[in-house]
């Protein structure tokens, strides 16, 4: 078969209906008619509803990553804001706690100062108020350092009190500071008086049986001493004024065959917690000076003439 004899149209065997142009023209007309009908009569609305229902799961899955990302960002921002708020509240709570503790400390200090002033009004010897700076560096002694010294009028041997009772005695003096030996030091002794019985004794510092304790020594085994008895200064040493609280008897040991009883006492003063103290002038310095002795007059012989 010659090539020239072939026509432009396909053979009858391969004909499949109208041409592509015809189909395009028909579909365009149908689409245009549907658009006009849908615009005028909402003809395609049920089909839209059905399609939207059919593709909703796909839309839900497609939007999930965006929603989860936004939720994560919101949760992170909320957590950061909550953490910052919590940090601020904790800082405010710490500040308020510190202020409350300072207020409690100030109330305690004011109470102690008022007690000191009341004690000062009852004492006859001159006194100087001082503050405890720190404990002495020697671990084998019980001493503290005061912020007042010789320039402020302190004297060597002056008794030191807090708002409750006797605290110690000035044993070393410097121009601006002074060293106080506490009554619980092993080398310190205080003449005391049992308020209940009126018996005198000497209380020594005791750091062997327990910390910050005292021992009433050289009391007979059958002495009238009971637990809870108050010991005050007797005033016979020329240092402490009489009647100042020193300690209370806490424990009594009477051993068979022993001459003296072992009597342990607990100091009345705040040995380990004193902050403000009162330094008195020793009683010996405030005592009335002894008048000078009168000149001796030689007796005249009887019967002698003047």
Q: Concise description?
A:
The chain is α+β, with helices and mostly antiparallel strands. The chain folds into two domains: 21-122; 127-286, Beta Barrel (Thrombin, subunit H), CATH 2.40.10. Helix content is 34%, strand content 23%.
Query: How many structural domains can be distinguished in the coordinates?
Result: 2
Unreliable spans: 302-306
Secondary-structure element series: HHEEEEEEEEEEEEH
Q: C-alpha Rg, in Å?
A: 52 Å
Please give a structural write-up.
This protein is α+β, with helices and mostly antiparallel strands. Mean pLDDT is 80; it is low at 302-306. The protein has two domains: 21-122; 127-286, Thrombin, subunit H, CATH 2.40.10.350. Helix content is 34%, strand content 23%. The protein has a six-stranded antiparallel β-barrel. The protein has a six-stranded antiparallel barrel with strand order 6-7-8-11-10-9.
Q: Which features characterize this protein?
A:
single chain, 306 residues, alpha+beta, Thrombin, subunit H, 2 domains, 6-stranded antiparallel beta barrel, 6-stranded antiparallel β-barrel, 3 helices, rod-shaped, disordered C terminus
Tell me the layout of helices and strands.
Elements: H1 20-41, H2 45-122, E1 127-135, E2 143-146, E3 159-161, E4 166-173, E5 178-182, E6 189-194, E7 200-206, E8 213-217, E9 230-233, E10 245-253, E11 262-267, E12 276-280, H3 283-286
Antiparallel strand pairs: 1-2, 1-12, 2-5, 3-4, 3-12, 4-5, 6-7, 6-9, 7-8, 8-11, 9-10, 10-11
């Amino acid at each position: 078969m010659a090539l020239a004899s072939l026509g432009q149209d396909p053979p009858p065997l391969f004909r499949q209906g109208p041409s592509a142009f015809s189909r395009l023209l028909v579909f365009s007309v149908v689409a245009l008619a549907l658009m006009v009908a849908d615009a005028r009569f909402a003809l395609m609305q049920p089909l839209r509803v059905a399609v939207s229902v059919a593709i909703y799961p796909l839309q839900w899955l497609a939007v999930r990553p965006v929603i989860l990302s936004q939720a994560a960002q919101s949760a992170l921002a909320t957590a950061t804001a909550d953490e910052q708020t919590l940090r601020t509240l904790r800082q405010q709570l710490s500040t308020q706690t510190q202020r409350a503790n300072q207020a409690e400390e100030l109330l305690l200090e004011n109470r102690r100062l008022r007690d000191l002033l009341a004690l000062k009004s009852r004492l006859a010897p001159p006194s100087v108020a001082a503050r405890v700076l720190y404990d002495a560096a020697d671990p084998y002694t019980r001493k503290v350092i005061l912020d007042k010294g010789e320039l402020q009028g302190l004297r060597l041997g002056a008794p030191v009190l807090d708002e409750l009772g006797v605290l110690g005695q000035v044993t070393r003096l410097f121009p601006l500071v002074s060293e106080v030996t506490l009554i619980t030091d092993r080398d310190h002794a205080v003449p005391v008086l049992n308020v209940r019985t009126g018996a005198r004794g000497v209380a020594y510092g005791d750091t062997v049986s327990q910390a910050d304790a005292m021992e009433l020594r050289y009391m007979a085994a059958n002495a009238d001493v009971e637990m809870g008895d108050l010991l005050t200064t007797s005033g016979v040493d020329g240092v402490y004024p009489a009647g100042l609280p020193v300690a209370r008897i806490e424990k009594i040991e009477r051993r068979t065959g022993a001459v003296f009883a072992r009597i342990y006492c607990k100091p009345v003063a705040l040995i380990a917690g004193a902050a403000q103290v009162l330094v008195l002038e020793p009683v010996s310095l405030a005592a009335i000076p002894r008048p000078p002795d009168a000149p001796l007059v030689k007796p005249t012989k009887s019967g002698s003439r003047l």
